[in-house]
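Write out a record, fold above all:
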Amino acid sequence: FSFPPDKGNVGTAAYLDVFDSIKAVLGQLKKEGYDVGDAPDSKEAIMASVLDDPEAKISSPDLNVAYRMTTDEYYEKTPYATDLEENWGPAPGNLNSDGQNLLVYGKQFGNVFIGVQPSFGYEGDPMRLLFAKSASPHHGFAAYYTYLEKIFQADAVLHFGTHGSLEFMPGKQVGMSGTCYPDRLINSLPSAYLYAANNPSEATIAKRRSYSATVSYLTPPAENAGLYKGLKELKELISSYQGLRENEGRGPAIVNSIVSSSYTCNLD
């Protein structure tokens, strides 16, 4: 999901090792008799099949292209495509596109497709989609869900991790209608969504606006990391000064040490 939107790397999510989770799901599917083709057994190999660069961004040429959708096919299979032209012009546009076709990023293994959900589209201002009434997803985003439903013909979609873009697309906040983009995008696809247990508010949005059955995962345990190296020493010097600043003999020496340590820690 490239968390946070438009700023993170491909295949990242809040508090979730996405590719290791995909590996676990593929293993369970295979165990239960589903066709997962020649899916790799390691998360590194799964990652490499989807993206060649572990730090790849959405616009990176290092993402594997699973399908090139012609504009004719896109307009034929996406009934609301012309509605997007007000904001993005005619397809294919500049996002998820090679200038002629719309690109769907991902990799298929047997009956399983591991896809990279496209970005919001508004670089630096992703929430614009949520609050601007005239906004819409871009053609590449629409093509992605058209591919899942009408070309790959998925029986279900599993969204990995907090959080993606589908549930924040323009439309009503409650009671989605056929003109709301979450409804248009997910359409008839059953959706399950892995969502961090510490974010029930946005998980509720995913349930309400994208019709997803949410599956919670625990966040990693955390503890106070404290200071380290030079910063820890600097804190101890400041504490010493607070107790000895009235001492004319040692006070100035500690101040000099504090200044020196501050420079060492690049706090100048």
Summary: The beta strands are 65-70, 101-109, 112-115, 157-159, 191-196, 212-217. The mean pLDDT is 86. Residues 58 and 163 are 15 Å apart (CA to CA). The first helix runs from residue 18 to 31.
